[in-house]
Structure formats: structure tokens, C-alpha cells
Design brief:
The protein is of the alpha+beta class. The chain has a single domain, classed as Nucleotidyltransferase, domain 5. It has helices at about 5-20, 60-65, 70-85, 105-115; strands at about 30-35, 40-45, 50-55, 95. It has a 4-stranded mixed β-sheet with strand order 3-2-1-4. It starts with a helix and ends in a 5-residue tail after the last helix.
Length: about 120
């Protein structure tokens, strides 16, 4: 098994372990984070219905065109997501780090969402 496959397999294992306990409901949906090499994506999901309520990503031209670090882009995505969530009437969420370590871009996004007014 190559190094890349080991990393992906490790993250998938952690992801399933986390997902056993974290579940998004209508009252308290799940904030899921996906981090690629260059972009970061976040969505708030109601697992009861299996629908995405709110989403945000760094691929928006207003964020992607800026010459800033990926961690700073994650912070902007977190701010954008919190604004959209509050507009949709969402105030309380559960955080799903999706198998990623809670530091760097994932932590930056989570802190920005907290500063934006969401509780988790």
C-alpha cells in the first residue's frame, strides 16, 4: 500500500469512528469540513433528511482571487458560513472534522464559525 493510500485509509477510519457518534438533526445540524490541497469546503447538514442546509467554500471568486494563505482563506469561509447559517435560522451545530486533525485550516475555520455566532 502506497503512502497516499495509507493516509486516505487512516482518514477514512477516523472519519467513520467520528461519524458513529456525531449526527446532525433539524435542531442541531452537523458542520462537515472537507479540505483539499488548495481549497476548503464546509457544509451544514441535516442527517435526518439527508440534505445540505447551508454551504460555503473557498472557490468563491471573492475569496479565491485574494493573495492570502490557505489558513486565512479558511477563516473567510468560516465567516461566510456563519453569516449564511444565521440567515437560515441555524444557531447551534455539531462539528465534524471529517477525519482531519483539529489544527491549521480546520481549526481556523471552526474558530471563525464560533466568532460568527454559531454554538458548538
Amino acid at each position: 500500500m502506497g503512502t497516499k493510500n495509507q493516509k486516505v485509509f487512516r482518514r477514512e477510519r477516523i472519519k467513520h469512528r467520528i461519524r458513529k457518534t456525531i449526527y446532525g438533526t433539524a435542531e442541531c445540524p452537523r458542520l462537515s469540513v472537507f479540505r483539499s490541497n488548495n481549497q476548503i469546503y464546509a457544509q451544514i447538514i441535516n442527517d435526518d433528511l439527508g440534505v445540505t442546509l447551508v454551504s460555503a467554500s473557498s472557490q468563491v471568486s471573492s475569496i479565491d482571487s485574494q493573495k492570502i494563505t490557505k489558513t486565512e482563506k479558511a477563516k473567510l469561509v468560516g465567516n461566510d458560513l456563519s453569516v449564511r447559517a444565521l440567515e437560515a435560522g441555524i444557531t447551534k451545530i455539531v462539528f465534524d472534522r471529517n477525519g482531519y486533525l483539529y489544527h491549521g485550516r480546520v481549526k481556523s475555520l471552526a474558530d471563525a464559525v464560533r466568532e460568527g455566532g454559531l454554538i458548538f
